[in-house]
Specification:
two-stranded antiparallel ribbon, 4% strand, mainly alpha, single chain, 13 helices
Length: 303
């Protein structure tokens, strides 16, 4: 009997541990924080009950109660965006970001940029992007650290200042494109490509050059994508975009013709001449430090 009693006493902590494990597993699966405050209830309504309207009400309560205000304001704005309450989300961030910590301001700016983009407020989007670039230039981004931890689809990863600068420049150039300011967009895309080149930005740069009727330059930029020289060249969407741009270039600028080159020897000569010119062509400029030589471009950019 004593042994049985001892076994029963030993089994009870195990059951408690299992219950605790199940509770922890629930929070991990649904990405819901533990606790019972208004912010936790808001996340439960958002992620478990799938009730965004109730989640917004609870996020407001969390903000007013000072319960995880940084996360509550950002998450509420994201839910509002999903419900097409974009203007309301913008006003909420602008009105209450003063309650948030200094560390949260960068994330709030990112949400604000997405909101401006969705509702077509391009000038405000450009203004915030320029401010973020100034912060980087002054060494104030990432709270003075060289990297920050970001999250995407539930996974954490490190982002460097260099990567962030290239991303912001790409977004700024895209905003200029929406205003049909292709000269400024071109300048900014070129700076972004110097820092961290990729195929998507190259396609957008090509588009800017086409709009300026600078077809030869556009063809050179596009060739790097079509030949797979840039990161992201084999992404299906980027590849489809590159093909569209290639067809557009074909219609706007037919390929050069060489009348009289009927013999195979003549065609071989032209091929050899093109290869020779490739050898003589000046090498591409090296990548510059993030903000080196950016000043000469300022006059070309829209204020």
């Amino acid at each position: 009997m004593a042994e049985e009693s001892s076994k029963k006493k030993m089994s009870s902590p195990t059951k408690e541990m299992n219950n605790g494990d199940k509770d922890s597993l629930f929070h991990v699966i649904h990405k819901v924080p533990s606790g019972d405050g208004p912010y936790v209830r808001a996340k439960h309504a958002q992620l478990v009950q799938k009730d965004p309207e109730s989640a917004i009400v609870l996020f407001w309560k969390a903000i007013n109660a000072g319960d995880r205000v940084d996360s509550a304001l950002k998450d509420m704005a994201v839910v509002m965006k999903q419900l097409d309450r974009t203007e309301e989300a913008i006003e909420a961030i602008k009105s209450f970001r003063g309650l948030c910590s200094k560390q949260a301001q960068g994330s709030l700016d990112n949400v604000l940029i997405d909101l401006y983009k969705k509702c077509g407020r391009v000038d405000e989007q450009i203004s915030v992007l320029k401010q973020k670039l100034r912060m980087i230039y002054l060494g104030q981004a990432f709270n003075g650290k060289p990297t920050k931890t970001a999250r995407s689809h539930g996974k954490k990863f490190q982002v460097s200042v260099k990567q962030e600068t290239s991303r912001i420049l790409g977004n700024l150039a895209w905003a200029y494109m929406q205003k049909s300011n292709y000269i400024s967009a071109e300048v900014v895309y070129r700076k972004a490509q110097m820092i961290e080149p990729d195929a998507n930005k190259a396609c957008n740069l090509c588009h800017c050059l086409i709009q300026q009727a600078r077809y030869d330059e556009a063809r050179l930029i596009l060739d790097d994508v079509l030949q797979g020289k840039l990161a992201g060249s084999y992404d299906p969407r980027t590849g489809a975009r590159a093909q569209e741009l290639f067809l557009e270039l074909q219609t706007r600028q037919p390929p050069p013709q060489f009348p009289g080159l009927d013999s195979e020897d003549d065609r071989d000569f032209v091929d050899e001449l093109e290869r020779l010119l490739d050898v003589w062509a000046p090498p591409r400029s090296r990548r510059l430090p993030i903000f080196e030589e950016i000043t000469p471009f300022r006059d070309q950019m829209a204020c």
